[in-house]
Amino acid sequence: MTQNVIVKAVDVKRRYQLGDEIVWALQGVSLDIFEGEYLSIMGPSGSGKSTFFNMIGALDVPTSGTIEFMGEDLFKLPEARQAWIRCNKIGYIFQTYNLVMVMTALENVALPMILRGEPKSQAHERAHAILERVGLGHRTDHLPSQLSGGQMQRVAIARALANDPAVILADEPTGNLDSKTGEEIIMLLKRLQLESGVTIITATHDVKMLNISDRIAWIRDGKLERLDERENVQINTGAMTH
Amino acid sequence: MENIGTQVRLPISTAVAIALQGIKIRLGRALVTISGVVLGIAFLMSVFTGELISGTGYIKGAMAQREELNNTVKTMESFVSQALGSPKDKIIGIIVAGDLEPSEQILAKRLARLTQDSKQAPKEVRAVGLSLPGLTRAEISDIGKDASMLIVMGNSEAFTKSFDDLTAGMEQVYVLDTYKPVVMASEESADNVKMRTYAGAPVVVLENSSQKYEQLYGAQQQEFLKEQAKKAESARFRTVWVMIISLLVTIIGITNSLLMSVTERFKEIGTMKCLGALSVFIRQLFLIESALIGFTGSFLGMLVGALLPMLMYSISYRDPATGALGAGFGVIFGTINYSLLLAAGFSAVVVGTLLAIMAAIYPANFAARMVPAMALRSNV
Known about the structure:
The complex is a heterodimer of chains A (242) and B (380). With 242 residues, chain A is an alpha/beta fold. Chain A has helices at residues 49-56, 79-88, 105-115, 120-133, 149-161, 179-196, 233-240; strands spanning 5-18, 21-34, 38-42, 64-69, 72-73, 90-94, 167-171, 199-204, 215-220, 223-229. In chain A, 34% of the residues lie in helices and 29% in strands. Chain A has a six-stranded mixed beta sheet with strand order 6-7-8-3-9-10, sandwiched between helices. Chain A is globular, with a radius of gyration of 18 Å. Chain B has two domains: 12-64 and 225-377, no CATH class; 70-217, Rossmann fold (3-Layer(aba) Sandwich), CATH 3.40.50. Chains A and B meet through helix 2 and helix 3 of A and helix 1, helix 8 and helix 12 of B.
């Protein structure tokens, strides 16, 4: 594996104002993420892992600290460049799928291509091919409301792959799925990483994710508690199971 | 490593296509929003159409004009009955010069109808230049013979030349000059009327002069006139007030509908942003959708607001003379001022569409500026 850093977080802090109370969701997290690796960000809910995940994905702005993406300070870039990164370099997968409910599976997958200016016919053709790749070639014209949770998550994965991204960010991708479907989704992500060399970053507290991760970042109380290589994983799973 | 590019700005047609698709799939929701606009604009439009039909304020409605016409006829009739007493067994002559005013036409018809009323039928109603069932055709030289009253319709100026001949043998000459818009009446000695000195007979002239009106009808009628003016003034005020209120109701209705439809889609906006949509694009999407909804809604609302009052007035219209129902459609649809109605309808559609766009500006901007993470988090 090449050790090119694709995302570099430096002392990222994020503060939220909840009424009169100020909450520090992130209290200074620094982390290098390498090209082509499978990184899991683990931590209980409220640990700040989703906040950190949002920062990496250019979805939220840190209170202080920097995120470098492809060597550029993400939050110093103008809006159109940030949008370009979100469109072309990052694929997002969410716990709640976040499909556009008024669009069919095919249109959802084609949307990122449309948004970067591809003609509709070409976008639809490619979207069809990607849906087939995730095993949904037969349900392209269904609306999300007509699909099961696992199928929706597959559509979301296909959409994340649409523009051939460098990084796939998956926020609790198995959180709303039963364990069998969840496992299928995890295997699908792993297969994609191996096949196309895409960097996969997941925020999760699903221990099934650990076995396939290259590295695991443990976040607790807004801090990076520990960073594990794969070989140490088994021991730490034991420690984490409450 | 590859350089970071700049996201392209999409053509407006892409935004239109996506907005249209959103409306199509979410038709139920869109219809709710549209009906909000329809209600607002229909209300605005019906207030205006009502004014066009029966308004007494800034716009003189068709019905109000009709009522005024009715009052004019009543004034003339009351003059006839005052001057003549009961028309029973009397002879009335009518001379027509030139075109008749609508009020004169009605008066002539009423006089003709009078001959069918057994209780107060005159001995004869004869006319020159006017043929109506019930009227006797007369030669101009015979018109005044044994008559108790001579009524001149149209422009009486045309009659000064041979008037003496016509009125020969009459005890009194009554001239109904209904050329002026408001008929007033006065009884004067012949000396005071410059244009007409008719062989010593007292002349009654009806014309547009409140002073003369007062002499005949007295101070009470003057009070009545003042009362009428006051009523017209308050009607005018009421019209303006209702217009302002209905505009406000429209604005609030439309804004509320659109605010709801934008806020409940924050999550979708967040998703779009994740996929690389620019703020400009999000803004366009909502403004276009609002414009489409606003236009559709205000067009429908305009139709409803114009047709409904016209139908209602038509159905409930009673003929002022007979009190009969049924003639309403012809009267309302025949007399309403269509160019004003059209102008109002056009403005209503423009106002509705603009309001819809304006109402969407704030939520669209708010949505467009949102950090994606926040938009995704929101649950409405």
